[in-house]
Amino acid sequence: MKFVHWLVLGCVVALPLSASAQWQWLDKNGKKVFSDQAPPPDVPEKNILRRVGPPPVARSTANPNVDAAPAEGAADAPPKSAAPKPSGVDKELEEKTKKAEADEKAKQAAEAAKVAKAKADNCALARQGKATVDSGVRLAKVNANGEREIMDDSARAAEQKRIQSVIESDCK
């Protein structure tokens, strides 16, 4: 029975060892860091003191793009340097910019069409009003008090002048 007690005690004492930190590295200030998670990617490989699993594959110093021990049949594969290099232009950003410019142009065109329609309507109303004033028919206006006044020759001439200025500005 004494043997079982010693065995249980040994297991209890060894239990915390399995929970110890599995990674150990030196941070940028030179302090040792112990963790159960991998170090951040900005930690150089030489500063990692202890790791989980096997160490990374060493790279050749002559050509860092080629593994030190290439796999069989790798001679048929294209070299890693043949991969397309980034051009420095974000295609998604370019597309968004072009779309925004197209939207802005469409908005300006819609606004221009709206202004042109309003001018055409004003022109039509002005020409109709000019035809009415030029016809010689007795015309009446409503004054500020809400009373109806018949237009005399001077009021008719002023109205013709105003309508002519509207026609000149809107009927082009």
Could you please describe the fold and organization of this structure?
It is a single chain. Helices cover 46% and strands 10% of the residues. With 172 residues, it is mainly alpha-helical. Among the domains are: 10-52, no CATH class; 110-170, no CATH class. It has a three-stranded antiparallel sheet with strand order 2-1-3, with no helix packed on it. Strands 4-5 form a two-stranded antiparallel sheet. α2 (91-134) runs antiparallel to α3 (153-170). The longest helix has 44 residues, at 91-134.
Task: Give the tags.
172 residues, mainly alpha, two-stranded antiparallel sheet, 3 helices, 46% helix, rod-shaped
In short:
This protein has 172 residues and is mainly α. Helices cover 46% and strands 10% of the residues.
Low-confidence stretches: 66-75
Number of helices: 3
Q: How many angstroms separate the termini?
A: 114 Å
Gross morphology: rod-shaped
> How much helix is in the residues?
40-55%
Topology as a string of helices (H) and strands (E): HEEEHEEH
Class per helix and strand makeup: mainly alpha
Radius of gyration: 44 Å
The biggest beta sheet is recorded as:
3 strands, antiparallel
Neighbour order of strands in the largest sheet: 2-1-3
Number of strands: 5
Strand content: 5-15%
Assembly type: single chain
The pLDDT mean sits at 80
